[in-house]
Amino acid sequence: MKLQILAACAALATLSAGSAFAGDSITAKLQAPVAQKVKFIAGGAIFNCEADACVALAPTSSTFSSDTCKTIADKVGPVSAFGGARTLTEDKLATCNAKALAKAGGATTLAKQ
């Protein structure tokens, strides 16, 4: 009986921790503003994009991921920052934006010497 109570408490603590993280909003700061408001689903959350930001107010535990960032970049353009309580590293942002930049014709160029 004590083992069942302990297991139930452990399960409740695990669920509480997962939903606590899921409650934080996730924001994708865009390199260029969107022309008009855009709404779409990525990473199991609804993102609302306006000006130079896309925000998911009710993200799931899988919303903060490189794949979600890639979906956003593919839909509205390259992302300059992505996260909430945590943020993607520069390397992961570069990977996130690779497809969007290629689609835009390689918007990055090297400076001439």
Walk me through this protein's architecture.
The protein has one domain (22-103). Helix 2 runs parallel beside helix 3. A 5-stranded antiparallel sheet has the order 2-3-4-1-5. The longest helix is centred in the first third of the chain and has 21 residues, at 2-22. 41% of the residues lie in helices and 22% in strands. It has 3 helices and 5 strands; from the N terminus they run H-E-E-E-E-H-E-H. It is globular, with a radius of gyration of 18 Å.
Summarize the structure.
The protein is an alpha+beta fold.
Helical coverage, percent range: 40-55%
How would you describe the shape? globular
Could you tell me the mean pLDDT? 81
Derived structural class:
alpha+beta
Q: What's the count of strands?
A: 5
Distance between the termini: 75 Å
Main sheet: which strands, in order across?
2-3-4-1-5
Radius of gyration: 18 Å
Key features?
five-stranded antiparallel β-sheet, single chain, 3 helices, 113 residues
Secondary structure blueprint with pairings:
Layout: H1 2-22, E1 26-30, E2 38-42, E3 45-50, E4 53-56, H2 66-76, E5 79-83, H3 90-103
Antiparallel strand pairs: 1-4, 1-5, 2-3, 3-4
